[in-house]
Amino acid sequence: MDWYTQIRPKIQPIFDQIIAHPFIEGLLSGELPMEVFYFYLHQDSLYLSEYRRTLATIGSQCTDMEESQFYLEAANGVILVEKALHTTYLEKARIESPISPTCELYTSYLSKMVHTQSLAVGMAAVLPCFTIYKEVGDYILAQKDGPENNPFQDWINTYGGEAFAESVAQAVRITNTHAQTAPEAELAQMEAAFIKASQLEWLFWDSAYRQEKWPV
Ligand SMILES: Cc1ncc(CO)c(N)n1
């Protein structure tokens, strides 16, 4: 059994809590308050501006040319999403809230992993950013009881679409390849990183829903 197939069931309780979260329910029903959505988008644009550099770092660490190309292209894809977010939503809304504690935690965690751990562990740490968004996108697309004109449809299409699915499948394949030759201790670190990043995905939705601020 490949690495991802055996690790995925371990985050099922986290995934179940993500899709049951009022933020996701609100995206699905179209009833998420716009203010909350804008807060999320602004924090996500701050997240993406760090995440792209994390992906590019992984790309620069890969010795295999195609793996390198994949992560560098993924970083480039993130830049395109960032730009699209800015032009379609954020420019008009002019949100200026500072980076939230959770956003700072998540981006710092990923940066720490790729700068201080092995390549395989770095790959495992960024994998939930691919797989969880894809699964959430697919889950929302599969619901039949959404409204006719969902204001969040563009967002849903981005992550539920075919293009993103292909990128996710490749990230899974590459990470599996690295797990095949990883010693026990490294596999344990890969698992811990994958689970931690999955928890941070939940926390990111939750912090957006709460419009999390620094308490002091
Ligand atoms: C927090 C977060 N994780 C993953 C993605 C998908 O790239 C995103 N846009 N934001």
Automatic annotation (TrEMBL):
The keyword Hydrolase applies. GO terms for biological process: thiamine biosynthetic process; thiamine diphosphate biosynthetic process. Pathway: Cofactor biosynthesis; thiamine diphosphate biosynthesis. GO terms for cellular component: cytosol. Its EC number is 3.5.99.2. Keywords: Hydrolase, Thiamine biosynthesis. InterPro entries: Haem_Oase-like_multi-hlx, Thiaminase-2/PQQC, Thiaminase_II, Thiamine_Salvage_TenA. Pfam families: TENA_THI-4. Residues 9-210 form the Thiaminase-2/PQQC domain. One of its GO terms (molecular function) is thiaminase activity. It catalyses: 4-amino-5-aminomethyl-2-methylpyrimidine + H2O = 4-amino-5-hydroxymethyl-2-methylpyrimidine + NH4(+); thiamine + H2O = 5-(2-hydroxyethyl)-4-methylthiazole + 4-amino-5-hydroxymethyl-2-methylpyrimidine + H(+). The keyword Hydrolase applies. Catalyzes an amino-pyrimidine hydrolysis reaction at the C5' of the pyrimidine moiety of thiamine compounds, a reaction that is part of a thiamine salvage pathway. PANTHER family: BIFUNCTIONAL TH2 PROTEIN, SI:CH1073-67J19.1-RELATED. Belongs to the TenA family. This is Aminopyrimidine aminohydrolase.
